[in-house]
Amino acid sequence: MNNIGTFLKTTVVAFLALGAVLAASARERVSFNDSWRFAKGDQQASGASFDDRDWRELRLPHDWAIEGPYDFKYNARTGGLPVVGEGWYRKSFQMPKSAKGKVVSIEFDGAMYGSEVYVNGKLVGKRPYGYIGFQYDISKYLIYGDKENVVAVRLVLEDLATRWYSGAGLYRNVWLQVTEPTRVAHWGTFIKTPEVSDHEATVEIDTRIAHAGRGTFKGSLETEIFDADGRRVASVSSDFATSEDEKTLTQLAKIRNPRRWDTEDPHRYRAISRVRNAKGQTIDFYETMFGVRTIEYTAEQGFLLNGKQTKFKGVCLHHDQGPLGAAVNYRAKERQLQIMKDMGVNAIRTSHNPPSIELLELCDKMGLLVQDESFDVWKIAKVENGYNKFWDEWHEPDLRDMIKRDRNHPSIVMWSIGNEILEQRNTNGEGAALARRLVDICKEEDDTRPVTAGLNHYPQPHDNGFAEELDLVGINYKPSMYAEVLEKYPDRIVYGSETSSCVSSRGVYHLPIEKYEKHESLQVTSYDLIGPVWAYPPDIEFHFQEQNPRIMGEFIWTGFDYLGEPTPYGGRDNSTNGHWNGDWPVHSSFFGAVDLCGFPKDRFFLYQSQWSDKPMVHVLPHWNWEGMEGETIPVYGYTNCDEAELFLNGRSLGRKVKGVDTTRIIVKFKRYDSDHLDSKYRLSWEVPYEPGELTIVGYKAGQEVSRKTVRTAGKPAGVRLTADRSVIAADGKDLSFITVQVVDENGIACPTADNEIHFDIQGGGVLAAVGNGNPASLESFRLPKRKAFSGKALLVVRGKPGASGLIDITASGEGLDSSRISISLEN
Ligand code: GAL
């Protein structure tokens, strides 16, 4: 058969590799990301003959909103960026005559928002929900031969449609696929492991066969299973005949001495499904990655992974990638997850929508547990133009599709049917009935995982029948109620689905320590105490989790800062509707344990001290308090060691014992009847300020195991560049993240520097983004310059596709010695 890839004028590396090992007529699936044209604005651009020659040419994934500019006319709640409005994407391609009679499908991993897809001027389908993937059979709309086909996609984003930055555009990958009429259906395999022992795993493979041909098809389905080393560990073949549109075949296989998927050893098996015709020729080929593992939840022991009790050390994550916006990037996601793992995280909640496939693939690979969440809203609106408008027509297909797409991922250990759904308050049973219906849908699609939701009201959903419908009861922000819930409902399995919501700006400290609602600087102190009325410091959650060991752990709000929802600035709480521009220019969140660029805030280390076993110490604040000589500075130490000792310019200021010595912190939030906590999770010292060196040393069993020093810096004199990776692939996608640190003449980090740094990028690379983690900065993410924030900025570069050699980067700033770094490109 002709090589369709070359006709498509797309890069088809994966296709070519696959094609070589397949019989000529098996499935072909190619990236459809290249050579799109894009324009914003209301217009009628669906027709094949529409002239798009002056539109911008680009490669997907693409997020038009991240390009900016920021403007007061946009809602700070959604990032102060142009997420609203209409946008069009068009692409021309040819389809060879040899594809006639086959099934040609186009697949969007997601399209933000309200997509309409046209092929040669004909509407093929609409899909409002921006987070869901979908595929259309476009065979009948195509012209085969050397004439051009045009696919056009219209997207419309309304103002006040979400509570955070959604991004805008074809922000996930697009694929084109050609199959024979009889094939494995879209998301057509479901692989379960109903029985698992050390000795043997029973693998049940349900394969849906789609059949678009006339008459009866007779053939066979063969499924082979390979381990990570490529060894074939099982194989099963079944003859079948079908004349139906879709038919499910169930096969059973056994894997001897199975290697489990685990957080420590996330081993996956690969199943290869082959559909053969009566002559034994392969006419379809489909790959599914899966894991062998057991999950179990009990009221007494909580969550058991492969029989081992496991607490959720979880983070909620929105889908954006900070300065890179919402356009999905594998490396950016991998880096985010690696930073989370370094904090001690073992679980991700995909708040509050189906995530990208890349995120799930990475969680499988990196051994992270996932709560896969479907909705932030049902029928009752949270914001004016939310998903509730589409609820009646779309919730069922959206929920079913999320599960069909995701159910082979071993990382997913629960489905969530919603976050803080307002129906939870219904006293007439309607909310509970709807919850039951959604739980039933989940079970119909997957009977192997429990269903949960995040409840924030108290006590209504616990008493009105709503919580009863859930397998796992997620509680948002009510740690002081855990004991009451467990006592009243001893059979319920409960965890903190959203916790803390503490806010802070990286590297910013306000003295004296006080709990305020807002600060005139439009920043928030990093003494890790501030939060809106429903929020509380991390220590409070640690405390109540410890008091209630049956609680299965927590998912903090949030791991990363995200674009939009700049609480405490703008709107006061989630029910503040309309525009959140009251404290402009603040436009992105303060909730993250790391900032928008992935630089850890102090809270990162507080969680690390609780969640990680690797010996660590951390000390705050910075040590640049010019003019405050002799005044007392509160110093906090976070550690997982037995003891920590603080030294100022070499003099010991005393050892403190973790868990015994406490720090009194101010606490004020709903349902907590004291105004403080004597926290055993942080150590503290009152230190009269003198410039120099502040060192914290951690001891285990009396031995020093960890130390960290902060130093008083002089005036900014230069820039230090540190790349996370100095060799990257020249594929136009891979990224190097370069930390830009302003330093004094001795190379000491300047913790308050805000110098503007200019970047010159030469050789085979281009700028992907810049950032600094300042939620109030209106600087562009796309220009080769950035002010430092608390001494740091981030530069992200990518290689030009096919380039080789080096990317040479120079960073300079007024009054600063310039600095250079090179990144090598690999082909
Ligand atoms: C929760 C909500 C999150 C976020 C958070 C901020 O109530 O579920 O999406 O808004 O508050 O604290």
UniProtKB/TrEMBL annotation:
Coiled-coil portions: none
Superkingdom as given in the UniProt entry: Bacteria
Record NCBIfam families: GalB (NF041463)
Protein name as catalogued: Glycoside hydrolase family 2 protein
GO molecular function term, any single one: hydrolase activity, hydrolyzing O-glycosyl compounds
Residue ranges occupied by any DUF4982 domain in the UniProt entry: 630-705
Organism: Pelagicoccus mobilis
BP term (GO), one: carbohydrate metabolic process
Domain Glycoside hydrolase family 2 catalytic as annotated: residue spans: 301-490
PROSITE patterns named in the record: GLYCOSYL_HYDROL_F2_2 (PS00608)
Domain Glycosyl hydrolases family 2 sugar binding: 84-176
Signal peptide start-end: 1-26
Keyword vocabulary terms for this entry: Glycosidase, Hydrolase, Signal
